[in-house]
Amino acid sequence: LDQTFLYHNFTHTERVLRSTREIIDNSKVSKSDAEILELTALFHDTGYTKTHEGHEEESVKIATAFLKDNDVDDKTIEAINKCIMATKFKDSPNSDLGKIIRDADASHFGKKYFNEASEFLRKELELQGIANYSPTEWLNENIKVLSKKHQFYTDYALKNWQPRKDKNLSKLIKTKRKLKQKLKTEELKAK
């Protein structure tokens, strides 16, 4: 994996797997569904090795090839592929397993390491020439994502991660308010 993947890398995959297991351990999930979810967590971003845009579709191809080579049955492969596609941020998951993996993939919004993960994503987008956000633009983007674009779907995430997500959003809004105040003070000094 290219060194510019500061966010979508092995650490992210480990965190998603850990968050997936956290939901599984605290929900009614069968052994076979747990296996599907864990394999999805491991494969969900492998498509980044091929492309950024449409990486989920590439992840499906990579997962399918690997799982077929390892004699995994077609029904399981299809379930894993549906879960991989449920990680598309702009779509809403339409199954219980999709909701679990989607929450696990976005669990950093409701974790203490949110700021670190967010900054790694900002820098990754910049290094790969995808987007270049100033710190203020990134602050505004994060506020928009946390307040308007993202939601948790599972009862576990709503109960356990939503409060921390709210706290993370509150800190972002407070930072924005302080920044505005600082700019206002500087403008007054300049007059």
Description:
It is built from 9 helices and no strands. The model has no long low-confidence stretch (mean pLDDT 96). The chain is an all-alpha fold and 191 residues long.
Key words describing this protein structure:
mainly alpha; 9 helices; 68% helix; 0% strand
SSE layout:
Blueprint: H1 10-25, H2 31-43, H3 55-69, H4 74-85, H5 96-105, H6 114-127, H7 135-149, H8 155-160, H9 162-190
Helix pairs in contact: 1-2, 1-5, 2-4, 2-5, 3-4, 4-5, 7-9
Q: Can you describe this structure in just a few lines?
A:
With 191 residues, the chain is mostly helical. The protein is built from nine helices and no strands.
Low-confidence stretches: none
- N- to C-terminal distance: 51 Å
> What's the story with the biggest beta sheet?
none
Put simply, the count of helices is: 9
Strand content: under 5%
